[in-house]
Amino acid sequence: MPWVDRADEMALMSWGFPLLQAGKAPRRVTNVRDDKILTSSFWRPSFEQRRCLVPATSFCEPNGDVKPATWHWFAIKGDDPRPLFAFAGVWRRYKGPIKKDGPSIELEVYSFLTTTPNPLVETINHERMPVLLTTEDEFATWLNGAPTEAMSLARQYPPDCMHIVQEGFEKEDRLAA
């Protein structure tokens, strides 16, 4: 559930910007690359006008080199087993189908920003990792800062401030159960 800057409210949204494809169901695009967010007409308006925080206590990445995939859950280090942080997100209102030939519906949707992986995440996912925000100043800058200030947060989270808290073949977070 993302935290959006509409009078500091929590809003239930649907994960993934629908991307319309001729003759197919729309594809959900769940992540936006930091090297595309400023140049893509699909992403730029949301980045400039509608940034949000997506609260989390961990995130998972599959090791796709192994079949079946092994899922690795990452968390930040802190006093709690899994301290709260936020993904840097963007959101928008979508009106259209979500199924092939389906009716037009209205949804608020979000995606979150990714960057190159730090050395810890890179051991599992060689391509991307989410942008993680952990301080009140980072939250405020992401939500209310100028686009250049917000983009300064699009960086790897320090690997020594993270750890793997769970791994296995199941995609479920045992802590959340």
Q: How would you characterize the overall build of this protein?
A:
- With about 180 residues, the protein is mainly beta.
- It has one domain: hypothetical protein yedk fold (Alpha-Beta Complex).
- The chain has four helices and 14 strands.
- The protein has helices spanning about 45-50, 120, 135-145, 145-150; strands spanning about 5, 10, 15, 15-20, 25-30, 30-35, 50-55, 60-65, 70-75, 85-95, 105-115, 130, 130-135, 160-170.
- The strands form three sheets. Strands 1, 2, 3, 6, 7, 10, 11, 12 and 13 form a nine-stranded mixed beta sheet that branches.
- β8 and β9 (about 70-75) form a beta hairpin.
- The longest helix is centred in the last third of the chain and has 9 residues, at about 135-145.
- It is globular.
- The chain starts with a strand and ends in a 9-residue tail after the last strand.
Shape: globular
Strand content: 35-45%
Major pleated sheet = 9 strands, mixed
CATH class category name: Alpha Beta
Relative helix content:
10-25%
CATH superfamily: SOS response associated peptidase-like
The computed structural class is mainly beta
Pick out its properties:
single chain, 177 residues, mainly beta
